[in-house]
Write a structure and sequence with these properties.
Layout: H1 2-31, H2 37-57, H3 68-91, H4 94-116, H5 122-139, H6 147-173, H7 178-205, H8 216-242, H9 245-266, H10 273-306, H11 317-322, H12 328-332
Helix pairs in contact: 1-8, 1-9, 2-7, 2-8, 3-6, 3-7, 4-5, 4-6, 4-9, 5-9, 5-10, 6-8, 7-8, 8-9, 9-10
Length: 334
């Protein structure tokens, strides 16, 4: 029960913080014309690192160093994936960019199946198909394709999938919390984007981030965006650590639908029956996926519990699940 409540809390935090920051950034970019997304992301990571450093100083969590090469490689890969996603949006139509985001789920499933020998049941596959269909209907408008945009999208998909799988794998292998991993990897992600951000933004917008007119209104929204990013970055690592990269991507598409809905309600964005129908289909897929995952995980826990009297062991399988132990790798990624 404690594990389930922790997971629900992580999922809720991720949804609320992500939807909030998207609305904030939309106002910043669309209304205030601050369109330097990659540079803004680098500031997000710097603020997140400073916040975690303050939390460490206050002893709110324990610093746990582990394999430095793994942390460095993971942090740099994460930074590169963010930059590639921004480039993909810049060199592709919005419709093709949405296709790129949709492709992350099947790519993650494929990589986990090939390299980690994980098996996804037909019920899981069916619910994911419904979810992707709904998000596609709600978000995809046009599919203009060009060679450079396609290459960037392909690289963005692969790096994002690998980075998210690494998040889950590293937390379990080295037994580190989401906070500990985020604290150690943040500087590497920030360095990649601090140096590449202004260049990428200038390439995409033909503007200089350092020459922008930073009014008090703009600065206020930038500060709010940076503060919200702390919660977003933390909840991302928390969700992937407690569930799986696939579940995190499913949650991401739910957030896309919520952003569309909030954009219509709060910002009066253009909306159509196609958007409404797509969101409804996606929600059905999301609910079905959550139900199937819960049932399959519960069945595995029950099977483990029923076999407990026949196995001589000093540990409790239920406690192992909560602490990310022996059976959690399979159970949480079903």
């Amino acid at each position: 029960m404690g594990f389930q409540l922790g997971t629900i809390g992580a999922l809720s935090l991720s949804v609320v913080s992500s939807v909030s920051i998207v609305i904030c950034n939309k106002a910043l970019i669309s209304t205030l014309r601050f369109s330097f997304a990659t540079t803004l992301t680098s500031w997000h990571l710097l603020v997140t690192f400073c916040s975690l450093h303050a939390a460490l100083w206050l002893k709110l969590f324990e610093h746990k160093p582990f394999d430095a090469r793994a942390v460095m490689g993971f942090g740099i890969l994460n930074g590169i994936s963010i930059g590639l996603l921004n480039l993909s949006l810049g060199f592709n139509s919005v419709g093709f960019y949405q296709m790129t985001k949709l492709a992350i789920i099947p790519c993650t499933v494929l990589l986990e199946t090939i390299f980690f020998k994980k098996r996804f049941s037909r019920n899981i596959q069916f619910s994911l198909a419904i979810l992707l269909l709904g998000v596609g209907i709600a978000t995809i408008t046009d599919l203009q394709l060009n060679a450079l945009g396609f290459t960037l999208s392909l690289l963005a998909i692969v790096t994002t999938c690998v980075a998210q799988i690494m998040t889950n794998t590293i937390q379990k292998k080295f037994k580190v919390s989401s906070t500990q991993l985020l604290y150690q990897s943040c500087p590497y992600q920030a360095v990649v984007l601090v140096f590449s951000g202004p260049f990428l933004d200038a390439l995409l917008t033909n503007q200089n981030v350092f020459a922008f007119n930073y009014t008090p209104h703009v600065l206020g929204f930038i500060i709010l965006s940076c503060l919200l990013s702390v919660s977003v970055n933390f909840s991302t690592f928390l969700v992937i650590g407690k569930t799986s990269p696939v579940t995190y991507q499913v949650l991401g598409h739910l957030k896309t639908c919520l952003v569309l809905a909030f954009g219509y309600i709060l910002l009066h964005d253009p909306f159509s029956w196609r958007n409404i129908f797509g969101i409804a289909v996606a929600m059905v897929g999301m609910i079905l996926y959550s139900y199937v995952c819960t049932m399959e995980t519960q069945n595995k826990v029950n099977d483990s519990s029923s076999q407990l009297p026949q196995v001589e062991s000093e540990s409790d399988p239920l406690i192992e699940v909560e602490n990310g132990g022996k059976i959690s790798d399979k159970d949480l990624n079903a």
